[in-house]
Write a structure and sequence with these properties.
Number of domains: 1
Number of strands: 0
Shape: globular
Number of helices: 13
CATH architecture: Orthogonal Bundle
Structural class: mainly alpha
Distance between the termini: 78 Å
CATH class: Mainly Alpha
Order of helices and strands: HHHHHHHHHHHHH
Largest sheet: none
Helix content: over 70%
Strand content: under 5%
Length: 304
């Protein structure tokens, strides 16, 4: 008697597929920004280690992971063109399981954020709203590269930095100087998001997604990305000088000078060299963030 072999997909995705959907490689930027927020608060870590650890988990494995799951679910048609090996278009996340993961991770993120104070919860709500608005219709901010990249920049850098400082302050509103620096680095992150869009240029064109590489072309988008990354860092350095932190300002200017050298090479072939710049220039960018955080931490230091 012939044996019948079922070709039906599994009812539940494998844990490895869920982990791939949540993209651990993307968690570093918001975790780093949260750490900068912790340092910038001026609050000693002694006695606050548990808050810092929970907050880092909130920034990376929870909120950032949520944004990745949401984006992959609503981008499944684009990914079928650009990256068909991803968990959803490949069928390794069957049915609507990708959407269910996004919903569960959203609720879990809110529950954890609520344990860290009012302003941390508010920042988490803002980040999650932007994460869903970026990918989900009818808003779908990613349809416009200007708005979509701004949403990503603020989620990955500004809100994470704000959250770190607020968590260390017991859930209270951080100092205005912290907010100012976090906003500037968020603006600069808009350019980093533009560079990330080069990898999906063909699929975005075919699906009508107006990323900046699609709207402006690779050359002009590369120029805009470089300008947007560089100008806020000049603003950061100027503020640090104004706040009497000249050595930290010099460190920011130093890493910016190295970034400018990298940008010269990037602009020879923005599309082909975007991955290279992400490994070099962006690393320098985040070192400047840390230098700024130490400056603020020194200015706002709370006695142990």
């Amino acid at each position: 008697m012939a044996r019948i072999v079922s070709s039906a997909p599994p009812a539940l995705p494998a844990p490895s597929a869920v982990l791939e959907l949540l993209k651990p490689v993307t968690w570093f930027p918001p975790m780093w920004a949260f750490g900068c927020g912790v340092v910038s608060s001026g609050v000693p870590l002694s006695g606050h280690w548990s808050v810092a650890i929970v907050g880092i988990l909130l920034a990376g494995p929870l909120i950032c992971a949520t944004s990745q799951a949401v984006n992959d679910w609503f981008d499944r048609e684009v990914d079928a063109i650009n990256e068909p090996h991803r968990p959803i278009p490949s069928g390794r996340m069957p049915g609507r399981s990708g959407l269910y993961v996004a919903i569960v991770w959203t609720l879990l993120s809110l529950a954890v954020a609520a344990t860290l104070g009012t302003f941390v919860l508010l920042a988490a709500v803002a980040g999650l709203v932007l994460a869903w608005a970026y990918s989900a219709p009818p808003v779908r901010l990613k349809q416009n590269g200007w708005w979509g990249n701004a949403a990503c920049g603020f989620c990955y850098e500004g809100l994470a930095w704000f959250t770190g400082a607020a968590a260390m302050a017991g859930g209270a509103m951080p100092d205005g100087r912290i907010v100012a620096i976090a906003v500037l680095y968020s603006l600069g992150a808009h350019g980093i998001m533009t560079l990330n869009d080069f990898k999906s240029l063909e699929g975005d064109r075919r699906m009508g997604i107006g990323s900046l590489p699609v709207r402006l072309g690779p050359r002009r988008a590369g120029i805009v990305a470089c300008a947007v990354m560089a100008l806020p860092q000049f603003g950061v350095a100027a503020l640090l000088v104004h706040w009497d932190a000249p050595w930290h300002a010099a460190a920011v200017v130093g890493v910016l000078a190295l970034q400018l050298l990298c940008m010269v090479r990037l602009l020879r072939d923005p599309r082909g060299l975007a991955p290279w710049y992400n490994a070099t220039g962006v690393s320098l960018y985040v070192l400047g963030m840390l230098a700024s955080a130490f400056a603020l931490g020194k200015l706002l230091a709370v006695p142990a």
